[in-house]
Amino acid sequence: MKEESNKKRAKELAANAEGNIKSRRLTKVGSGILAGYLNDRPFIDLLSEDEQPHYFFFNDVKGVNITGKIVRAGWMNPYRSGMWITDRGIHFTVGRENGDYHFYLKFNIVDDIEVREGLTTYRFIYQTHRGEYQFPANASGPHDSAKSYIENQIENQVANQISSQSPPTIVSDKSTSDNVQTQIENRVINQKPLQSSQTNISDVSPLQRLQKMDEYKFEHLVADIWKNQGWEVNLTAGTADRGVDIIAIRDDLFEQRQLIQAKRYSAGNKVGSSEIQKYSGLYMRNELIDAVVVVTTSEFTNEAREVAKQRNVKTVNGLKLVKILEESEISSFEE
Q1: Are 297 and 211 in contact (CB under 8 A)?
Q2: 79 - beta bridge partners?
Q3: 166-327 adopts what CATH topology?
Q4: Which end of the chain, N or C, is more open, meaning fewer C-beta atoms within 10 Å of its C-beta?
Q5: This prediction's pTM
Q6: Which fold has domain 2-161?
């Protein structure tokens, strides 16, 4: 009875898929002449009740890299490793005779997706606040379409989070919120770089402490900067990074919304252009958003700065952040 029900559902899922999903792949269990995908149960049993798969990729021996840990079946194992892309996230599976491996990566914690073309594989690389996830996929398949689908899903997750935020209470003391946008832009955009004679231990030490700070504490610190200027702030990260860390809202004569991404990076880890492009896309696609700001304890690549200038994304690097903190009432912070 269960087998027949699975076959019926698999046909419906394959018919509704945007990509290369086939019903027999969803219900196949075990191996035969051809290598199988899972030994314990078919993939369709791993899907939630209303989850829709769209793309599938595999590799024979390379397995999957989960934040530095490689999981693979082995050279003589009659099973393949799979990457199943659904409307909810990405399932990584490794079929093994001694017990299948399954890892589920939700879209709402994925910051960025990159696909690198190699001689025999296309490597899918997912960046998250938890680390990097990699899957070397077979050379044949709709790699570009799958990448575009994943990017859209990531953006949709952020847009849904933004639209779900309730309007803020109007700030009663307008003296603290007047000309805040001008003040922030003056600090962020027009601030002159520190001269070499000013770069002493008082500048370096706070920056080093910021770079060693717990990432969630850092997000709260950035939120406090905006809150200190009269903005209503909502932190969206909590236990999982949804791509945008802070939504700042102000309602004086009219409502304004800013998306703020807090990147607590080490000195050598620069924010790249792909991250700027991602957040500028949110600004361009969502009429509710007035500005996008990316704040980092590190630096931006030259290409990232150029993209930010072209797409009207505000950037705050580590030195500027220290300066803003020194000028604000937020004078202390912990590692």
Answers
A1: yes
A2: 36
A3: Trna Endonuclease; Chain: A, domain 1 (3.40.1350)
A4: N
A5: 0.54
A6: PH-domain like (2.30.29)
Q: Where are the domains of the chain?
A: 2-161, 166-327
Which residue's entry shows tokens 């994304």? 313
Whether 196 contacts 265, CB under 8 Å = no
The token duo for 114 is 């990159």
- Which residues contact residue 244 at a Cβ distance below 8 angstroms, ignoring those fewer than 6 apart? 158, 161, 162, 236, 259, 260, 261, 279, 282
Tokens of 67: 């934040």
Diameter of the chain by CA atoms? 78
DSSP structural state of residue 118: -
Are 168 and 249 in contact by the 8 Å Cβ rule? The answer is yes
Instruction: Indicate the burial class of 167 (C-beta count within 10 angstroms; 0-12, 13-18, 19 or more).
Output: exposed
Amino acid at 105: L
Q: Counting Cβ atoms within 10 Å, is residue 144 exposed (0-12), middle (13-18) or buried (19+)?
A: exposed
Q: Supply angle C-alpha 143, 148, 154, rounded to 5.
A: 125
Give the Cα separation of 258 and 265 in Å (integer): 22
* Residue type for position 312: N
**Chain segment 55-101, per-residue pLDDT in tens:** 999 998 899 999 999 998 876 778 889 999 999 999 999 998 888 99
The alpha carbon dihedral of 157, 158, 162, 165 has a sign of positive
- Of 95 and 157, more confident: 95
